[in-house]
Amino acid sequence: MTFFRKDFSMKKRITILSGAGISAESGISTFRDSDGLWEHHRIEDVATPQAWQRNPKLVLEFYNLRRKQLMEVEPNAAHVAITQLQQKFDVEVITQNVDDLHERAGNKNVLHLHGELKKVRSTAHSFTVYDLDSLSRQGGSWELLMGDVCENGHQLRPHIVWFGEEVPNLPIAAQIVSESDAVIIVGTSLNVYPAASLYQYAKPNCPIWIIDPKANELVYPKSITPITEKAGIALPKLIQSLLEEKIVL
């Protein structure tokens, strides 16, 4: 009789919950500016289903500019530090960001909650998703235009979860957090729901850190350890401590 042994990984799982702050250090604009505008636009005019119905051309132009901006920036020290963490731990990245800076840095397991800027989907079938640069159409590879259609002839739209739309990857994210041995929150002020509630799925006594220059001003449970520095400074230091086992999980 032949016996087969299943290979169970003994690596600890660390989950990174990332938000706009980590990408801001690369030069990506965030929408929560002091004036409430995102690149001089009201959120209601460019990032809702109603905005798409009213003025799809404006919405396409807005995201075309976001893609152009994305092509002009690079991953920063915080993105790169996460790749180093992969050497010793089972790392999952759950991000609210729609850019691809995590992937470009070499992060392997990335779950996008709010969609992906470099992907587009059919307006008629949400599951029909394409990599934008794989399409044959007019304009640059980062542009999506009126008249760009899916294989069934329906207009394509940004593959973005707009305000007011469901977050389809949220249950998957909650499951990942619930199975984690540690959670690091970076670049998010825990204001955008439902993503802001994900840390609540962590196991009892699971160590959780929040990295934010204004961490002491945020509202979160006392069980979460604040680090009041920028992501590019704090995350590499925290990850080095984990790798050197100065912090033992």
Report on the architecture of this protein.
- The protein has about 250 residues and is α/β, with parallel strands linked by helices.
- It folds into two domains: about 1-30 and about 75-115 and about 165-249, TPP-binding domain (Rossmann fold); about 30-70 and about 115-160, SIR2/SIRT2 'Small Domain' (2-Layer Sandwich), CATH 3.30.1600.10.
- It is built from eight helices and eleven strands.
- The chain has helices at about 20-25, 45, 50-55, 55-70, 75-85, 100-105, 170-180, 230-245; strands at about 15-20, 35-40, 40, 90-95, 110, 115-120, 130, 155-160, 180-185, 210, 225.
- It has a six-stranded parallel β-sheet with strand order 5-4-1-9-10-11, with helices on both faces. Strands 7-6-8 form a three-stranded antiparallel β-sheet. A two-stranded antiparallel ribbon has the order 2-3.
- Helix 6 links the parallel strand 4 (about 90-95) and strand 5.
- Helix 5 (about 75-85) runs parallel beside helix 8.
**Strand count:** 11
What is the CATH topology classification name of the largest domain? Answer: Rossmann fold
Query: How would a textbook summarize the main sheet?
Result: 6 strands, parallel
Q: Biggest sheet, strands in spatial order? A: 5-4-1-9-10-11
Q: Mean pLDDT, as a whole number?
A: 89
Query: Topology as H/E string?
Result: EHEEHHHHEHEEEEHEEEH
CATH architectural designation of the largest domain: 3-Layer(aba) Sandwich
Q: How many domain units?
A: 2
Write out the CATH superfamily name of the largest domain. Answer: TPP-binding domain
Q: What's the gyration radius in Å?
A: 19 Å
Overall SS class: alpha/beta
N-C termini distance: 39 Å
Number of helices: 8
Poorly predicted parts: 1-8
CATH class type of the largest domain: Alpha Beta
Strand content: 15-25%
Overall, the morphology is: elongated
